[in-house]
Amino acid sequence: MALLFTVLLAVSAAILGYFLIDLGKRDFLRETEAAIDIEINMLSSLENVEGQLLPYIQRRTQDDQVVRFRYEDESGKWLAGAIDPIPENVQKITEGVLGFELDTAQGRQSFAAKIHTFDNGTRIVVARDVHELIASYEQLKYLSWLIMLLMLIVVLVSFGISHFVVSRINRIAATAQNIVETGDLSQRLAIDSRWDDLSNLSLVLNGFLAKIEDLMNSAREVSNNIAHDLRTPLSGLRSDIEALKKHPASEEQIDTVLADIDHILAIFHALLRIANIEKGKRSHHMGEVNLSRIINDIAELYEPVAEESDIRFDLKTAENLIVKGDADLLFQLFANLVDNAIKFSPKKSTILLSVSKEVHQVVALVEDQGPGIPEGEKEKVFKHFYRGDASRSTPGNGLGLSLVRAVAEQHQARVILENGGPGLRVRIVFQPYQ
Amino acid sequence: MKILIIEDDAKIRTYVGKGLKEAGHTVDLAEDGETGLHLASTEKYDVLIVDRMLPKLDGISIIKTLRGSGNLTGVLILSSLGDVDDRVTGLRSGGDDYLVKPFAFIELLARVEALGKRASSPLSAQSTLLKVGDLEMDLLAHKVRRNGKIIELQTREFKLLEYLVKFKGQLVTRTMLLEGVWDYHFDPQTSVIDVHISRLRKKLGDTGNTFIKTVRGAGYIIEDSF
């Protein structure tokens, strides 16, 4: 395609150039010939009147440098005019028009001439100085060549650009095709410069690919983790059932089997719940929720659990802070956070639970004095099934904080993990309630 | 009690039916919505167990039709739709309780029996003075006495005890307690309820766990004969 356009452009440039040169030449000839013809007509009319011709020629020869004459008899003998002798190198320019050079005050210059034979056999040669015309013709010729050259450059450059663009697009297409065929999302489009639009497009497409790869990876990670997380209870279940084959099952054994199954079901339940919340399926279910009440209820519910590990709640709740949301989900969010805080708190420590108004936002805090979360893990802890080094030995399914984030996002609240004195400070910032 | 099970899944229908019969109840079975509605409106039942998704007529429509015709039989909705949203639609249509599949039979039994009890003694007829053995609860004065001695309880502990005493002689599961006493639908990851119960036991002087008994893998019970 690019080649076709280039050829078309080149051909039209050539035609234009030829046309300009040819037209210039024709015009120049026609004008000169017409001027000479006028002279000849003048001379012919004078020739009819006896004795007029010679003085006229002599007079013109004296005043006019542009037009020159040679009047000769039938044998070619000079009678009058400035052309004498007949110049050498007489060229035939076109039919009936001759060209030759003569000496002038400005040096040798080109003349175009026509010969007219009168009825009495005498001949007149009328020559016109055409050096200016030739000069302008030459100028026109140069200009035409210049135009052709410029067009040639345009042709070459446009060929280059289209070749560049087309090859880039082909390369993008090839990479995309390759990704489609191999399913390998780690491939990226090559970017060799940063200034052109196509590189810009490639950058955007690369970002797009990275996003898809990220999503695919997290989906794959989740399914891997499900498979991995379920293998342990499933193999436990399998061996427990196998043990039942040999002896009549005791109630205790059946309870173990049921507990295994309940654990597996709980994981699926949690996953489905997170998926549903992330889908925003329940966003129409929002109402006014008294966050202060929720935090107080949480503290009351978990206070005996905390007390078992000698952990004390430091409860700082401002009265009646209202947010827009779903009470059950928000309760679940803080239950998960407090449950985590209790799990990771050392004995005889304090967990700060607070809800307050900062400027226009309602901010809830859960702060423990546990080991905290290392900076590098702060984003990872929200991933499904992620379990930090500190939490590997504690009970849980690695979905608690995923649910926290899902609920927070559904409520357009931000979850911020900060390092406390020692320990972890979880800050939930709610949008101002209208 | 006379119980009607409307459930299209044959496995669950027979399994639940068999279990309820073994627990001493009379059971009728219906495998689609139309048969179920017909039975429910012609016979007198104590409790209906209704699946949400049924052939011919769905569970919610059955309940709405029954309630529309003034039938106030206790209804337990069974559903694989476990979202709070689904629960709310189920309960708003007139269901009294909602149980998500898969469930433990013991949970179902406890809820069905609680429903039956609620139906047999309407709230208005309940006295404000509850008695179990040597324990007395005055719901109006918010006082608890055991052997004539006043026991100080916090509001939530009082509600917890009240719930257990109201359903004395019946198993009360942990989820029933969470929903009935705390009024939130959520999954506690640790056994928060157990800790509250053990605290309550301590205050009541129930050292051997003989007053509030633990039913392993299910919940708690205060024996009627106590």
SSE run of chain A: HHEEEEEEHHHEHEEHEEHEE
Q: How many beta strands in the DSSP annotation of chain B?
A: 12
Q: Would you report the number of β strands of chain A?
A: 13
Number of helical segments of chain A?
8
Unreliable stretches of chain A (pLDDT < 50, length at least 5) are: none
Question: What's the oligomerization state?
Answer: heterodimer
Topology at a glance:
The complex is a heterodimer of chains A (434) and B (226).
Chain A: H1 2-48, H2 53-63, E1 67-72, E2 78-81, E3 91-94, E4 97-104, E5 107-117, E6 123-129, H3 131-182, H4 197-246, H5 251-278, E7 287-290, H6 291-308, E8 312-317, E9 322-325, H7 327-344, E10 350-358, E11 361-367, H8 400-410, E12 414-419, E13 424-430
Parallel strand pairs in A: 8-10
Antiparallel strand pairs in A: 1-2, 1-6, 3-4, 4-5, 5-6, 7-9, 10-11, 11-13, 12-13
Helix pairs in contact in A: 1-3, 4-5, 5-8, 6-7, 7-8
Chain B: E1 2-6, H1 10-22, E2 26-30, H2 33-42, E3 47-51, H3 59-68, E4 74-79, H4 84-92, E5 97-100, H5 105-120, E6 129-132, E7 135-138, E8 143-146, E9 149-151, H6 155-166, E10 172-173, H7 174-182, H8 192-204, E11 212-215, E12 219-222
Parallel strand pairs in B: 1-2, 1-3, 3-4, 4-5
Antiparallel strand pairs in B: 6-7, 7-8, 8-9, 10-12, 11-12
Helix pairs in contact in B: 2-3, 6-7
Keywords:
heterodimer; A: 434 residues; alpha+beta; 6-stranded antiparallel sheet; 5-stranded mixed sheet; 8 helices; 13 strands; B: 226 residues; alpha/beta; 5-stranded parallel sheet; 4-stranded antiparallel sheet; 12 strands
